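Supplementary Methods, section 5.1.

A reviewer requested that the exact input to the structure prediction be made available. We therefore reproduce it here, unchanged from the version used in the analyses.
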Amino acid sequence: MYDESTRTLRQQFDLLDGLRSRAGTLLAAASLATAFLSAQAHAELDALVWAAVGLFCLVIALALIILMPWRLTFAHDPHLLIAIHLEPGPPSSIEALYRDLSYWNGVHYQENGRKLRAMIGLFAAACIALAVEMTLWLVVLGSQ
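The structure derived from this sequence is encoded token-by-token as follows.
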């Protein structure tokens, strides 16, 4: 039970790491693509250009929100564990310690899951915004 609960938290940590890596890549790709395509577009600042710039700003904002530090929990406070399981009376059994850790790993897993689902939604929105932005830039370039 304890091993499974720590494995699920590790999977969440890996998911967070991958999501942040992808958000950084998306940020770089949006910057490069926008810089290249907007430089090629010798158009006046019409509605399509403003929409593309607005979507670029949205991609940047969403990626930065993902990259911001969110309060996810992947570890336990050792001082609290000592206070609960070793002090003030006789130490808890190893089974009680593992049961307690498994319980709190489950609590952290659920709390982290809500935040990770929100981050995944933000990432999906950023990807869609980038795709629409690139489409708008291509339409602007094609109309020249």
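Residues 94-142 form the longest helix (49 residues). These observations are discussed further in the main text.
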